[in-house]
Design a protein that fits this description.
Length: 322
């Protein structure tokens, strides 16, 4: 019998690749979206409305829900009888409207977790590496390391992890999958904080552009196609019996392991595109202690928990993909 998956955020940067990964694995996939939903191929579901979540789950009746949706302005998350989510690329936007961020990253996540748990659906909550402080010398962070977010975005994502795991602790049908900044096939560069750096390279053709690009904090950009594959592999490997499920680690992490600053990524793009960076300069300054949003220096994630489960943690070479 063909297994079925419900993918929220199926029209987004990550969701599209999650859909493809499950289809390629022989799953029957139903997706949902909101602003870009196009029924009947993708259902229109407002994930901030509990009643719409419950109705969609009942209508689709899948064994797996992958939450790859990107909540407006804020978060990305997954679920399932598997699941990732919407992780907002701009933490400062979260700090400007913390009440809305909490409503989306925490309240909606809790509603999703209760709804999937009540229907025996595995929920994979996709979180972020920004739950860690990224203090120089601490990375890589193990999955069981103590989180300590430095900004509201990381805090609301951590709170989302906690409500998800609390709602599913008796059934063990909730998992957290942390991922870093993502890139991949886009409909526009603005979908990804990595892809959008190509626009900065184009602007830097003007020697007077005066673009200052961060050359301080370390990032591990990871391809959405690899994340989609890992989500599918987790769903396949997840135990069928409750006793075995209880033994599974509840927090997993996936990342590529190549490390770059944003300026180094721009340098690579300039070489690939044959363009200069005359209008861009490297900014090696760290955090401004007076800034409202403190960005981590290095949140490199360890993937040992996934490896221990026999999950393929390989990732495409960054430059080769481009």
């Amino acid at each position: 019998m063909m297994r079925s998956a419900f993918v929220t955020g199926a029209t987004g940067l990550l969701g599209r690749q999650v859909v493809e990964a499950f289809k390629n694995g022989g799953w029957n996939v139903v997706g949902s979206g909101f602003s870009r939903a196009s029924p009947p191929s993708t259902l229109k579901v407002d994930l901030c409305q509990k009643s719409e979540i419950e109705r969609a789950l009942d209508d689709v009746n899948s064994a797996l829900l992958v939450a790859a949706h990107k909540l407006p302005l804020f978060a990305q998350k997954f679920f399932t009888k598997d699941g990732q989510g919407a992780a907002q690329r701009f933490p400062d936007k979260v700090d400007k409207d913390p009440a809305a961020a909490r409503a989306l990253n925490i309240t909606a996540s809790q509603d999703l977790a209760h709804a999937t748990n009540a229907r025996s659906i595995l929920l994979i909550y996709i979180s972020t590496d920004y739950v860690f402080p990224g203090t120089p010398g601490q990375a890589p962070y193990e999955a069981n390391a103590t989180p300590h977010p430095t900004n509201m975005y990381g805090q609301t994502k951590l709170d989302g992890e906690q409500v998800t795991l609390e709602a599913t602790k008796k059934s063990a049908l909730g998992l957290v999958l942390r991922v870093p900044v993502l890139y991949g096939p886009t409909e526009s560069n603005s979908e990804s904080a990595v892809n959008t750096l190509m626009d900065s390279v184009y602007k830097a053709q003007d020697p007077a552009a005066g673009i200052k690009m961060d050359d301080w904090s370390i990032r591990t950009p990871t391809c959405t196609q690899d994340v989609g594959r890992v989500c599918r592999d987790i769903a396949v490997a997840f135990p069928e019996t409750g006793e075995e499920r209880m033994q599974w680690p509840k927090v997993l992490q996936f990342t590529a392991h190549e490390r770059f600053t944003k300026y180094q990524i721009c340098q690579m793009f300039s070489e690939i595109m044959g363009l200069s960076l005359d209008g861009m300069e490297a900014n090696k300054q760290g955090n401004d202690p007076n800034a409202s949003v403190q960005r981590p220096y290095d949140c490199h994630l360890s993937t040992k928990a996934l490896e221990g489960l026999g999950i393929d943690i390989s990732a495409v070479n960054f430059q080769t993909w481009w």
